[in-house]
Design brief:
166 residues; ten-stranded antiparallel sheet; Multidrug-efflux Transporter 1 Regulator Bmrr, Chain A; alpha+beta
Length: 166
């Protein structure tokens, strides 16, 4: 492996609150889902008078097959658990505040375009099987630290990949 490949490390991830839009999505439609759902989450949080406190997240409930059970989310402050309700009344989108539970995890960083992320996940999963026997919680997430809406050059995109160990 090249020396500039980000390492896979055991980390202790914090638990934090996210505002999320959860759906079951065809794998081929994930990009469009994230574009729409991340915007829905931002709009709902703003309408509720709160704020996001971190970058966008894709939180998967399981390894995708033809479909993915996934949430488009943002870390938030100032909102209670449950549906996000605008200051003016009823929720306008299926956005809710949930705890994203941390704990002991394997994590690495993917640098580059999303279509190359599979090799970074492969490195992480290989280590997971070698060191931990593939035992884990089932969910995993991606944190888009530098993403396509903020940086036009895909070579500069940075995504943190996190796989809980239990």
């Amino acid at each position: 492996m090249p020396t500039d490949t980000p390492p896979v490390e055991v980390t202790l991830e914090p638990t934090f609150l996210v505002a999320a839009s959860r759906r079951t999505v065809a794998r081929a439609d994930l990009g469009a889902f994230f574009d729409l759902a991340h915007r829905e989450v931002l709009d709902a949080v703003e309408a509720a008078g709160a704020r996001v406190v971190g970058p966008p997240i894709a939180w998967y409930a399981r390894v995708p097959d033809a479909t993915a059970d996934v949430a488009a989310a943002f870390p938030v402050a100032g909102l209670p658990l449950g549906p996000v309700t605008p200051a003016t009344g009823e929720p306008t989108a299926p956005v809710e505040v949930l705890p994203l539970t941390g704990g002991r995890c394997l994590a690495t960083e993917h640098v580059g375009a999303y279509d190359g992320m599979g090799s970074s996940w492969d490195r992480l999963v290989e280590r997971w099987h070698a060191d931990h026997g593939g035992a884990g919680r089932g969910d995993f997430w991606e944190v888009y630290r530098v993403e396509r809406t903020a940086e036009a050059d895909p070579a500069r995109w940075r995504t943190r990949l996190v796989l809980p160990l239990g």
